[in-house]
């Protein structure tokens, strides 16, 4: 198993007992102040912690009660929740400033190419329109950071299957083009996503795109539960979505064989494929399908990790 198999424990606990003043003296680099919009299960924060960043404060906007339960369980009260993005005002942004890093990944179901009933970017009854709240907040913080000379970096992610007209609209608002990154070369899952970002070097992540799958790349078989004699029928799986049946082929066959039968991935295997420790979403009485719903909307930790690592020279680490 490629992931962390240790027993379930909180992943965000501050293990250091040193006062923050003595920690920050170690580095002249600023500590990160983060705002994570559409925070989901806290993938951005989880990845920053994995990379060892010294985070002064993290605020988040999320409304899904299962997602909020997962982040609260894993990170205690470290993430300060602000409620819905639609309710975040400029006064609130002034109060939480300075912000050095803004994450955003608005809901993609109304933009995704696989949804034939998608409502698009502008329909007020859909979720695509939430992009404009991300833009509003980004614009305010971006202008403020330039005026006040605050280091400000940002990242906005969404599905690469969106229509070109929507990609072009988003690019117009952010005044830059996205890069496409597929988690394929970082994990055994295909997951093509657009990233708009100020983080320099992001284009380096795309250099893999045209390469064939390398022999040393992550393969599904390395992510399966070893003791149960499970065999992978494929090297890479397709995009894991919110549906348990998402990986079945046209004959309803699942990507794993166990005891001579086709079977789906265990939810703990999916957690590890996404780069989380096993049982990361195993909180309270959340069902397997609720956990898959949360994971199916999440970022791939491995991709975000490569991207955020580029901030290592700019912000303090512990
Ligand atoms: C594509 S998912 C983002 C997942 C996240 N990047 C992760 O890795 O878990 C979009 C998220 O936006 C949240 N959301 C939907 N409406 C929202 C709102 N009005 N304010 C804040 N979050 C919202 C959803 O609950 C969902 O978790």
In short:
With 318 residues, the protein is an alpha/beta fold. It is built from 9 helices and 10 strands.
Care to describe what's here?
There is one protein chain. It contains nine helices and ten strands. The chain is α/β, with parallel strands linked by helices. The structure holds S-adenosylmethionine. S-adenosylmethionine (SAM) binds next to loops.
Indicate the radius of gyration in whole angstroms: 20 Å
Strand neighbour order, sheet with most strands:
3-2-1-4-5-7-6
**Shape type:** globular
Mean pLDDT: 89
- The helix fraction, in percent, is 25-40%
State the separation between the terminal residues, measured CA to CA.
28 Å
Largest sheet, in brief, is: 7 strands, mixed
Order of helices and strands: HEHEHEHEHEHEEEEEHHH
Bound compounds, each kind once, are:
S-adenosylmethionine
Secondary structure tally, helices:
9
Number of strands: 10
The poorly predicted ranges are 1-9, 12-24
Percentage beta strand: 5-15%
Secondary-structure class? alpha/beta
Oligomerization state: single chain
């Amino acid at each position: 198993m490629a992931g962390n198999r240790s027993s379930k424990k909180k992943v965000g606990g501050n293990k250091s007992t040193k006062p923050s003043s003595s920690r920050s003296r170690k580095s002249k680099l600023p500590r990160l102040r983060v705002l994570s919009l559409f925070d989901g299960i806290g993938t951005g924060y989880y990845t920053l912690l994995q990379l060892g960043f010294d985070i002064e404060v993290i605020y988040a906007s999320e409304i899904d009660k299962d997602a909020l339960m997962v982040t609260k369980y894993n990170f205690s009260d470290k993430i300060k929740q602000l409620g819905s993005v639609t309710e975040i005002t400029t006064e609130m942004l002034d109060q939480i400033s300075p912000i050095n890093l803004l994450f955003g990944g608005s809901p993609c179901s109304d933009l995704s190419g696989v949804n034939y009933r998608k409502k698009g970017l502008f329909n007020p009854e859909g979720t695509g329109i939430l992009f404009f709240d991300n833009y509003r907040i980004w614009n305010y913080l971006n202008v403020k950071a330039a005026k006040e000379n605050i280091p400000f970096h940002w990242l906005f992610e969404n599905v690469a299957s969106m229509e070109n007209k929507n990609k072009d609209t988003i690019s117009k608002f952010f005044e830059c083009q996205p890069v496409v990154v597929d988690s394929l070369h970082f994990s055994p899952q295909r997951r093509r996503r657009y990233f708009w970002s100020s983080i320099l070097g992001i284009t380096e992540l795309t250099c893999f795109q045209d390469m064939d799958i390398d022999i040393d790349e992550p393969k599904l078989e390395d992510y399966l539960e070893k003791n149960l004699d499970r065999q992978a029928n494929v090297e890479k799986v397709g995009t894991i979505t919110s549906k348990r049946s998402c990986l079945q082929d046209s004959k309803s066959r699942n990507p794993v064989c166990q005891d001579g039968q086709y079977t789906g991935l265990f939810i703990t295997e999916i957690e590890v494929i996404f780069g989380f420790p096993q049982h990361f979403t195993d909180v309270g009485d959340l069902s397997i399908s609720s956990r898959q719903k949360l994971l199916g909307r999440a970022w791939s930790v491995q991709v975000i990790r490569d991207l955020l690592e580029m901030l290592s020279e700019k912000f303090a680490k512990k």
